[in-house]
């Protein structure tokens, strides 16, 4: 693994890492970052399955929620930038299996016939994590972005067992019911893996292509057993799973993790461009962690089954695939088992193109969006008609 000055490499993806901060052990998650959810608690007044006139507002943390925060000295709500507020004002709600799913759509007036894009965030992130991409991509393609169940402003049902297959089915149903056209799926981290599973399972021609940004090998690292670092830590991962299933312990860890100062430190460790870790990004992640059911989602993802392995899925996908990989990613390093697999694909499969992004971390689209757009937009323009 490439050594990064000033930080210890993190060897596993959605799992728990224990890092030394000052003299204390800080427990923090390492999800395929953007890391935790778009931060808005949404006021819903819609009764129809799809509504463009949902009454939505950004709420502050309730007294009940804030009282559960352990020693969060910065628990007061932080105001969002005008641009992020405007992004959230455009959100809509779609009813899926009885749950409210948050999404946004920006229509391209210049190229209405170009294939639409669906942006799918990583573990804990949300539509807000695409803040630097939606406007630019909407100049040439209609753009949808969705909050997966359990994250952002989407419902977070308590006691729900989250799986990669559930999110993949949600994506396919969204394409069938909302987009209703062959669509290019663009995902980051576990969002990428959900897109791969959806593409492999799609039998109705609704997926026209894939863009994978530092794709994860599983919902958590129990899938990555062929890395000696994971083998070494595997007993510890099982112990962490056991501890997280104890409600009191899980709550204490989660409350520590979601403090803004800790989130900022985590994000700084996985972004190549430190300037991209701004107040908006911290709020995108922080605010939804106070929603009811957020703790359950966190525990379920970290302790649940890793899901289908992309190694078994990618060879069965014949559609165009663009892989964009930040070479400064401590979660899924290019020299790790997942990175090595994806970097080998262009020599084996003619439909796959790989572009390495220098000095970029685990979330290329938010870390260095200009580098992503430089590769993505020409690739989209060259796609055959869908």
Key phrases:
386 residues, alpha/beta, Rossmann fold, 9-stranded mixed beta sheet, 14 helices, 11 strands, 34% helix, 16% strand, disordered N terminus, AB_hydrolase_fold, hydrolase
Structural account:
With 386 residues, the protein is α/β, with parallel strands linked by helices. The chain has a single domain, classed as Alpha/Beta hydrolase fold, catalytic domain (Rossmann fold, 3-Layer(aba) Sandwich). The chain contains 14 helices and eleven strands. The protein has helices spanning 63-66, 82-89, 134-137, 164-179, 190-201, 228-244, 247-257, 260-270, 279-286, 294-303, 310-313, 337-344, 364-367, 369-381; strands spanning 16-21, 24-29, 50-51, 92-96, 99-106, 117-120, 143-146, 183-188, 207-213, 321-326, 352-357. The chain has a nine-stranded mixed β-sheet with strand order 3-4-5-7-6-8-9-10-11, sandwiched between helices. A two-stranded antiparallel ribbon has the order 1-2. Strand 6, helix 3 (134-137) and strand 7 (143-146) form a beta-alpha-beta unit. Helix 8 crosses helix 9. It is globular and about 55 Å long. The termini are far apart. 50% of the residues are buried. Residues 1-74 have low confidence and may be disordered. One of its GO terms (molecular function) is chlorophyllase activity. This is Alpha/beta hydrolase fold. It comes from Zostera marina. Keywords: Hydrolase. It holds the Pfam family Abhydrolase_1.
Q: Predict the CATH topology.
A: Rossmann fold
The CATH homologous superfamily is called Alpha/Beta hydrolase fold, catalytic domain
The class by helix and strand makeup works out as alpha/beta
What general outline do the C-alpha atoms trace? globular
Mean pLDDT across residues: 80
Sheet bearing the most strands, described? 9 strands, mixed
Q: How many strands in all?
A: 11
Strand order of the largest sheet: 3-4-5-7-6-8-9-10-11
Which architecture name does CATH use?
A: 3-Layer(aba) Sandwich
Classified by CATH, the class is Alpha Beta
As residue ranges, the low-confidence spans are: 1-74
Distance between the termini: 39 Å
Q: Please give the domain count.
A: 1
